[in-house]
Amino acid sequence: MLKVVKVRLYPNSQQQQALIQSFGNCRCLWNYCLNLINQTYKETGKGLSGYEIKKLIPQL
Fold first, then answer.
1. What 8-state DSSP symbol labels residue 59?
2. Residue 37 near residue 47 (C-beta atoms within 8 A)
3. What average pLDDT does this structure show over 6-23?
4. Which of 15, 19, 22, 29 is 20 to 30 A from 9, alpha carbon to alpha carbon?
5. Which pLDDT tens digit goes with each residue over 15-50?
6. How far apart are CA 31 and CA 20, in angstroms?
7. Mean pLDDT over residues 48-58, rounded?
8. What is the rounded radius of gyration, in angstroms, for the C-alpha atoms of the chain?
9. Quick one: residue 58, left, alpha or beta (phi over 0 = left, psi -120 to 50 = alpha)?
10. pLDDT-derived band at 60, boundaries 50, 70, 90
11. Domain residue ranges of the chain, discontinuous segments joined by +
12. Higher pLDDT, residue 59 or 23
């Protein structure tokens, strides 16, 4: 049997700004990787593996 715990957060203004920035960075990274996968597929007919994408993250 699975249990569910619901938690509601009430961040202060400084924490809200940090969350907004983190979510924005995640969205930007997601869109960059998605575009890279699509371009690679169009050019080569093959996609990128998750490992290949993870290797690029430190460079960004």
1. G
2. yes
3. 96
4. 29
5. 999 999 999 999 999 999 999 999 999 999 998 999
6. 16
7. 91
8. 17
9. alpha
10. confident
11. 25-59
12. 23
Asked if 41 contacts 47 with a C-beta cutoff of 8 angstroms, the reply is yes
> At residue 55, what is the residue type?
K
Q: Would you call 53 exposed, middle or buried from its count of C-beta atoms within 10 A (0-12, 13-18, 19+)?
A: middle
Entry field: residues in the chain: 60
CB count within 10 Å of CB 8 equals 4
CA–CA separation, 49 vs 53, rounded Å? 7
Identify the pLDDT of residue 1.
87
What is the rounded distance in angstroms from the CA atom of residue 46 to the CA atom of residue 33? 15
Sign of CA dihedral 34, 35, 36, 41: positive
Report the alpha-carbon angle 9-15-18, nearest 5.
120
